[in-house]
Design a protein that fits this description.
Rossmann fold, 188 residues, 8 helices, single chain, two-stranded antiparallel sheet, alpha/beta
Length: 188
């Protein structure tokens, strides 16, 4: 069994916040390699600037991940040009909003490229935009395991996969020891 691992870093960051713990990328690689030959591991991340997350990205590369990045799209908060109205550039920069980098195309290209030499894909994402990719990979005979968490995964993506594993069920195997926190969306 040849397996490929693809981690949508943006989606997983928010899924991990929701469950209240963060996974260790090394543990994820070890889990993905159990019972299979892990032929490729990809990690996708949006960046505010080229130096953003540099130590983390370097650590991922050293572990064996292929790291793909794109700049986060930046939107102004006021909709107009503050400098044209005499406001300082500092105020304008304070109102910047960053939104998703959208690495779905990179995920699709990588997974379609490795598909001929792959039997199984572990996809860590919740993006509805990947449902058609999953359908195409399955039509090519690949088995797709989707890993995310309840409430953070699109129904269409979950329905397209062969198997769904809730990230919460993997906590004993994946959790980073020093990164425990309370769930962001706890119900009391």
């Amino acid at each position: 069994m040849r397996r490929v691992l693809a981690v949508d870093g943006h989606s997983m960051f928010y899924a991990q916040q929701k469950v209240g713990w963060f996974f260790e990328p090394r543990n994820l690689l070890e889990l993905a390699a159990e019972g299979a030959e892990l032929s490729s591991a990809f990690w996708y991340a949006g960046l505010k600037d080229p130096s953003d997350q540099r130590p983390f990205r370097d650590a991922l590369t050293n572990l064996g991940y292929t790291v793909r990045t794109r700049p986060l799209r930046e939107l102004g908060g006021s909709g107009g040009s503050d400098s044209a109205r005499g406001h300082s550039d500092q105020r304008q920069s304070d109102q910047r909003q960053y939104v998703r980098a959208n690495l779905d195309v990179e995920i699709a290209i990588d997974l379609l490229t490795v598909a001929p030499r792959t039997d199984q894909v572990w996809l860590l994402s919740g993006s509805r935009d990947l449902d058609r990719l999953v359908e195409v990979l399955r039509a090519q005979g690949l088995q797709i395991t989707l890993i995310s968490t309840e409430g953070m995964v699109a129904r269409e993506l979950r329905n397209a996969a062969d198997r769904f594993i809730d990230l919460a069920s993997l906590r004993p195997r994946l959790e980073k020891g020093e990164a425990q926190q309370q769930p962001v969306f706890s119900r009391t």
